[in-house]
Specification:
The protein is an alpha/beta fold and 356 residues long. Helices cover 35% and strands 15% of the residues. The chain contains twelve helices and eleven strands. Helix 3 runs parallel beside helix 9 and helix 4 (81-93) packs across helix 5. The longest helix is centred in the last third of the chain and has 23 residues, at 262-284. It is globular. The termini are far apart. The protein binds pyridoxal-5'-phosphate (PLP).
């Protein structure tokens, strides 16, 4: 994006003009002792006190993440999982029934679902045969006269779900530079990758938003805590349009506590990476496994002779995997999460008994 182009010029007009809701906790900051401003109950009936509304901007968590990631608090927005951030970005920048978002199948299904939810048409530029980005195909589109004014969003998933590969960072940086709208790099699985994160590019490009999450490596999928790293202009927009209290007090608390257990989390990541390699090795020994794709994530994409049958047989044995065979370029493929060693032993023992 051109460096003097302002983020505000990419915003939907109604979003640019709207006055955000100002919650009681937004309006007051100070050291009061009596809070009679938010119609809360003065009693809590739950072990952890949740009778008060949470901090709308998750400030304590933002401060801690800011020190961890080496970015300013102004570069960070906390959301109800990364999924919330994806929806907010659609709502902020893509005008329903006229703007377009670029997605690169096979990829995370939510980009398409939220496009439909927001009445935004997607343009699909499939990944190449090796699941890398078709940079040339994208560049041609950026200048295409039919799209040049409507291309608002580009979603890049790295490492990509369901293929597991990380995208080339130079390719991403080049695309952020040449794309006329907002580039979203979804790094939900980055902690499991040996390729570099794009988070440092946020300092150089105002039209980049990098999404990370506490759901995967941090073992907190049930808490719903996502992080968006971006330019202050984009972060301000997300704050303006999100639900006033989008991340619960319990979830903010859980994430703060998790950040004190970083060593433990890092050890957990190493264990999952080791299990991933062992699982790949065991799968390759099975007669009906045709290919195990290399993975930078906590799952493996596996091509088998009959994905539908494998899925059904495993389900019959009480094991659920994800059948991805109907996805573009994934015929015959299943996606298997790297679970605990005991779960993976059970998986492999069961798979040995199955004949496809
Ligand atoms: C690529 C990708 N992004 C985002 C998410 C959702 O993350 P969260 O739990 O933070 O909403 C997922 C979940 O599977 C995912 O695969």
């Amino acid at each position: 994006m051109n460096s003097d182009q302002k983020i505000s010029s990419l915003l939907r007009k109604n979003i640019r003009n709207m006055k955000p809701y100002s919650s009681a906790r937004n309006e007051y900051s100070g050291n009061a002792e009596v809070f009679l401003d938010a119609n809360e109950n003065y009693r809590s009936f739950f072990t952890v006190p949740v009778n008060r509304y949470p901090d709308p901007l998750s400030r304590e968590l933002v401060e801690k993440i800011s020190r961890w990631k080496g970015l300013e608090p102004e570069n960070i927005c906390i959301t109800n999982g990364s999924d919330e951030a994806i929806d907010l970005i659609y709502r902020a920048f893509a005008e329903p029934a006229s703007d377009n978002a670029l997605i690169m199948p096979p990829t995370y299904g939510v980009y398409q679902v939220f496009a439909e939810l927001n009445n935004v048409e997607t343009i699909r530029v499939p990944l190449q045969e090796d699941f890398s980005i078709d940079v040339e195909g994208l560049s041609i589109l950026f200048d295409h006269r039919d799209f040049v004014h409507t291309l608002k969003l580009l979603f890049i998933c790295s490492p990509n779900n369901p293929t597991g590969n990380a995208m080339n960072k130079d390719d991403i940086a080049g695309l952020v530079q040449s794309f006329p709208g907002i580039v979203v790099v979804d790094e939900a699985y980055q902690d499991f990758s040996s390729s570099p994160s794009c988070i440092d590019l946020v300092k150089d490009f105002q039209n980049l938003a990098v999404l990370q999450t506490f759901s995967k490596a941090w073992g907190m999928a049930g808490a719903r805590v996502g992080m968006t790293f971006s330019s202050p202009d984009i972060i301000q927009v997300l704050h303006k349009i999100k639900y006033p209290y989008n991340v619960s007090k319990l979830s903010q608390h859980a994430a703060l506590e998790a950040l004190d257990k970083r060593e433990e989390v890092l050890r957990g990541i190493e264990e999952i990476k080791n299990s991933r390699e062992q699982l790949a090795h065991s799968l390759k020994e099975l007669p009906y496994v045709e290919h195990v794709f290399p993975s930078d994530a906590n799952f493996l994409l596996v091509r088998v002779t009959d994905a539908d049958k494998l899925y059904e047989e495993l389900k019959h044995h009480g094991i659920v995997i994800r059948n991805r065979s109907s996805q573009y370029m994934c015929s015959g493929c299943v996606r298997i999460t790297v679970g605990s060693p005991a779960e993976l032993d059970r998986l492999i023992e069961t798979m040995k008994k199955i004949q496809l």
